[in-house]
Structure formats: structure tokens, C-alpha cells
């Protein structure tokens, strides 16, 4: 066994890390200097002035691709892939809800050069807007008779489509050699 006074020749087997405070203080100073150096060039760039949000002057076409089947290939260009393509941001969005979110979103508006702030409207602008909306409402007013006529027309078109489908079925049966029995 080891003598109590012979610990001078013993092996250090504590396996604990010894911290050199000066070394770590020096590393912290170097890291702080690097971070200060990174932040300074960014602050020298003047902020970009963007226009406030405004109304779209075009109609968003969501119905054109509705219900259509498309073959998806991995080598097709972005504009011809499945989904809705944004030519401003050059990205493809898979459904109409996400496409609307995208074109109303921050990334798309910034690409158009607009900020997400809305210009404050004056009293005169609001009054003019109300007047234009009133004029539009008066010219495009519907009566109940117009609505009834539209409903009747749709019902007639639907009946005509059903009749044509029935005739096509009968023709297929006759051409395939099956006998048609009509019970009344």
C-alpha cells in the first residue's frame, strides 16, 4: 500500500478537466471582437425604402387549373410543374389556398417592392370609394325575376345533359349487343 506521505509520486487519475481561466477569457474576447466586426458592416447599409401595400390591378386566376389532370415529371421546368407557379418569386405552390397565402405574404410583397404597411387613407379617399361602390351596386342590381330565370336556365341545362348521357348509354348497350328493356 501507498504511504500517506508519498502522494508526490502518485498518478493523477481524477479525470476532471482543469479550466484555464486566462485561456477562456482570451477566447471570449476574440469571439466578441469577431461578432462586433460582423455587425458593423450591416449597420452601414441604408435601409431600403419600399412602397406601401396597394390593391392588385389584376384578377387572381385560381379556377383555370381546377379539376385538370397533369402528368408530373421531375425534369419539367418550374412553370410547368403541378401546382400554382409564381413568376415573381420563381416558386411552385401545390394548392390554391397556399398560393393565396403566398401572394399575400411578406416574401412575395417584398419581391414586388412593397412593404407590409398600408397607406393611411384620407377622408376624401374613403368618401370617393363609397361613391364608386354605390354606383357599381346600382348598375348591377339583380331582381328576383333575374335570379329565377337563371335558376330555371340551369335546371334546363342539367336536364339536357342527363338526357344526353342516357342516350349515350343506350347507344353503347345497343352497339355491344345487349338488349334494352324499358319498363313503364
If you had to describe this structure to a student in words, what would you say it looks like?
- This protein is mainly α and 184 residues long.
- It is elongated.
- The mean pLDDT is 81.
- The protein has a two-stranded parallel ribbon.
- Strand 2 and strand 3 form a beta hairpin.
- It has five helices and four strands; from the N terminus they run H-E-E-E-H-H-E-H-H.
List keywords for this structure.
184 residues, two-stranded antiparallel sheet, 4 strands
Count of runs of 4 or more consecutive helical residues: 5
Structural category is mainly alpha
Helix share of residues? 40-55%
Q: Provide the residue-averaged pLDDT.
A: 81
Termini distance?
A: 115 Å
> Quick one: how many beta strands?
4
Strand content: 5-15%
Low-confidence stretches: none
Largest sheet: 2 strands, parallel
Give the topology, please.
Elements (H helix, E strand, L loop, with lengths): L20 H24 L6 E3 L30 E3 L4 E3 L2 H8 L2 H6 L2 E5 L4 H17 L4 H33 L8
Structure summarized in a few sentences:
The protein is mostly helical and 184 residues long. It has five helices and four strands. The model has no long low-confidence stretch (mean pLDDT 81).
Amino acid at each position: 500500500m501507498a504511504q500517506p506521505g508519498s502522494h508526490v509520486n502518485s498518478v493523477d487519475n481524477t479525470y476532471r478537466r482543469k479550466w484555464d481561466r486566462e485561456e477562456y477569457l482570451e477566447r471570449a474576447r476574440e469571439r466578441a471582437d469577431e461578432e462586433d466586426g460582423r455587425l458593423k458592416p450591416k449597420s452601414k447599409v441604408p435601409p431600403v425604402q419600399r412602397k406601401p401595400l396597394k390593391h392588385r390591378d389584376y384578377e387572381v386566376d385560381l379556377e383555370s387549373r381546377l379539376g385538370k389532370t397533369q402528368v408530373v415529371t421531375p425534369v419539367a421546368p418550374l412553370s410547368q410543374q403541378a401546382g400554382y407557379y409564381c413568376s415573381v418569386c420563381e416558386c411552385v405552390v401545390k394548392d390554391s389556398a397556399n398560393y393565396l397565402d403566398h401572394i399575400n405574404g411578406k416574401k412575395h410583397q417584398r419581391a414586388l417592392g412593397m412593404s407590409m404597411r398600408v397607406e393611411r387613407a384620407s377622408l376624401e379617399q374613403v368618401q370617393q370609394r363609397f361613391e364608386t361602390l354605390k354606383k357599381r351596386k346600382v348598375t348591377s342590381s339583380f331582381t328576383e325575376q333575374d335570379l329565377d330565370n337563371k335558376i330555371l336556365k340551369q335546371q334546363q341545362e342539367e336536364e339536357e345533359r342527363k338526357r344526353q348521357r342516357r342516350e349515350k348509354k343506350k347507344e353503347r348497350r345497343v352497339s355491344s349487343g345487349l338488349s334494352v328493356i324499358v319498363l313503364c
